[in-house]
Amino acid sequence: MEFVKSGIAKFRVISELQELAERAFIYKLKKSNPDITQLEIIAEVNRWYKDRPGAPVGDGVGRIGDPSRFQ
Questions:
Q1: Distance, CA of 6 to CA of 4 (rounded, Å)
Q2: Which of 8, 28, 60, 65 could form a disulfide with 54 if both were Cys (CB 3.0 to 4.6 A apart)?
Q3: To the nearest whole percent, how much of the chain has pLDDT over 90?
Q4: Cα distances (angstroms) measured from residue 30 to each of 27, 33, 50, 62, 67
Q5: Which pLDDT band, with edges at 50, 70 and 90, does 18 fall under?
Q6: pLDDT tens, 44-68?
Q7: Are 52 and 59 in contact (CB under 8 A)?
Q8: Do 29 and 41 touch, CB atoms closer than 8 A?
């Protein structure tokens, strides 16, 4: 992406995409269960972050993460 050159700009794009994915997940939760409480939503979002495909290795499906990049 030509317009995303600086690290700060890249981080902002990634952050906005993450926020959009979370909002979409919450919308889906509320649509499937209109009586869900805020505490249940928080618990489901936390579980989603931990259990979504790729989460255990820190990358998307099919890509094994290299933990050394965080050191």
A1: 6
A2: 60
A3: 38
A4: 5, 5, 20, 29, 35
A5: confident
A6: 999 888 777 666 655 556 556 666 7
A7: no
A8: yes
Q: Look up the pTM and report it.
A: 0.65
C-alpha distances (whole Å) from 17 to each of 12, 39, 58, 62, 68 are 9, 23, 16, 20, 24
With cut-offs at 50, 70 and 90, classify the pLDDT of residue 20. Answer: very high
Q: Which pLDDT does position 12 carry in this prediction?
A: 87
DSSP string for 29-66: HHHH-TT--HHHHHHHHHHHHHHSTTGGGTS-TT----
Please enumerate in sequence order all residues whose Cβ is within 8 A of that of 59, keeping only pairs 6 or more positions apart, or say none: 65
